[in-house]
């Protein structure tokens, strides 16, 4: 956020674009790491926390499905920081609000309508996380030239090392 804000202030659009792409990639990679660690450690952590046996499996299921949304969650948060660095605090809030409403509606459909219980709540949450990531990526791609994600391949750094 600070890095992008400085580049905006210095009117270094090429570097700003690189910083935004880096934020997006870092969000996705960090999310994948959280996903892997979360899935791997959910059971042991619930055991260490002395989760009651009657809710252990449901809690474990919810947590594992929830971690599937980590890449989208972190991508959204990293890119929302970019928008806030540009002085746009409204659109990240509107996206979260819309996706929060989507989450509630999907909870009703999956839990009350389809009877999926805890699984339905977790799936609704993950869908709303991916929706927020898709919306913010689409929004940023439509912005000025400095905010165009993934349109150019990353530079080949092997030539610079030689």
Summarize the entry for a quick read.
The chain has 162 residues and is mainly α. The chain is built from seven helices and no strands.
Q: What does this entry look like structurally?
A:
This protein has 162 residues and is mainly alpha-helical. It has helices at 2-9, 13-48, 53-67, 70-85, 90-113, 117-141, 158-161. Helix 2 (13-48) packs antiparallel against helix 3 (53-67). It starts with a helix and ends with a helix.
Order of helices and strands: HHHHHHH
Percentage of β-strand residues: under 5%
Given as residue ranges, the uncertain stretches (5+ residues, pLDDT < 50) are: none
Radius of gyration: 19 Å
Q: What's the end-to-end separation, in Å?
A: 32 Å
Structural class: mainly alpha
Give the overall pLDDT as a whole number: 87
Q: What is the 3D form? A: elongated
Topology:
Elements: H1 2-9, H2 13-48, H3 53-67, H4 70-85, H5 90-113, H6 117-141, H7 158-161
List descriptors.
162 residues, mainly alpha, elongated
């Amino acid at each position: 956020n600070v890095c992008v804000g400085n580049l905006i202030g210095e009117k270094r659009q090429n570097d700003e674009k690189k910083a935004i792409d880096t934020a997006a990639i870092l969000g996705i990679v960090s999310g994948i790491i959280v996903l892997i660690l979360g899935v791997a450690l959910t059971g042991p952590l619930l055991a260490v926390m002395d989760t009651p046996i009657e809710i252990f499996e449901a809690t474990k299921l919810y947590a594992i499905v929830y971690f599937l949304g980590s890449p989208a969650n972190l991508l959204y948060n990293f890119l929302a920081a970019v928008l806030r660095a540009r002085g746009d605090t409204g659109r990240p809030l509107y996206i979260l609000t819309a996706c929060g409403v989507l989450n509630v509606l999907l909870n009703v459909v999956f839990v009350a309508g389809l009877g999926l219980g805890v699984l339905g709540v977790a799936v609704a949450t993950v869908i709303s996380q991916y929706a927020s990531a898709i919306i913010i990526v689409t929004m940023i791609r439509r912005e000025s030239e400095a905010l165009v994600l993934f349109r150019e391949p990353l530079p080949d750094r092997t030539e610079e090392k030689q």
